[in-house]
Structures are given as structure tokens and as C-alpha cells.
Amino acid sequence: MATKTQELLTLQGAKIAVAAAEKKAKEIGVDMNIAVVDASTHLLHFSRMEGAKITSISIAIDKAFTAAGHRVGTHMYKDAVWPGGAAYGLGNTNGGRFTTFGGGLPIVNAKGEVIGGIGASTGTPAQDQQVVQAGVDALQEVLRGKVRAKL
């Protein structure tokens, strides 16, 4: 097979995920930077809530990059990247963009294929993780046809 057809995450899909992530950030009281990338790890949509830290803009983008590019949540690397860990030094790869703490999740279609990634930053890794999980969950509802896309 010389080619493959692949579903693409659209801007509308990215906006659905970001809107849900922003809603969760407001619920927990932490303004966030939230980024969505496509399956090729290119930035598709970004939102900086008013109180989000300027220094966490690139962190949110890099969390989305890592989640989509490596096809797993960034929190999965937390223990493995320290000296003696199975993935020690991994955080220094990809020009330092590889992120190894919570707040980045892959976005997966119904076939289990990664079609993008979402990252959030400003809160603690646990808060960032809650926010991106809300974004993924909302988009999954739309992808499964359980709710209609609303923006």
C-alpha cells in the first residue's frame, strides 16, 4: 500500500475541545493556556485565558505536541525520565519540546488512531490534566455522535 486515508482533526473539532477545556479551567478557578495540534503536531488552535501565565504558553503547545507525536498522555513519563528511569533523558529530545508531566493528552478517533493532541498549562500538573481531559471528553462525545457540535 503506497497511501493511507486518515481522518483529520478540524478547526471546529479543536475549538470544541478548547471550549470544554476553558469551561473546566473556569470551574476549578485557574486560567489556562490551551493548545490543540493535529496528528502531524502542527498547532491547530490556541487559547490564552486572561490570567494564564505568559511563561506557560509554549509549555501548553509542547504538551499537545508530545501527546500527539508520541501518542500517549504526557503524565505517563513522570517517573521514567529521572536518572535511572527507563526513559532518562527523553525530556531533552525534540529540541527540548518533549514534555514529561501531566497536562497533555492525545485525541483519538473511533478507530483508535491519534488525530491530534491537547495541552494545557498554568496550573499544577493535576489541574492541567483535568482541563485537557475535559477537552478530550467533550470532543469524544461529538465524534461518537452522542451530541451535536455546538460553538
From TrEMBL:
InterPro entries: GlcG_carb_metab_protein, PduO/GlcC-like, PduO/GlcC-like_sf. It comes from the Eukaryota. Pfam families: HbpS-like. Coiled coil: none annotated. PANTHER family: PROTEIN GLCG (PTHR34309:SF1), SLR1406 PROTEIN (PTHR34309). This is DUF336-domain-containing protein.
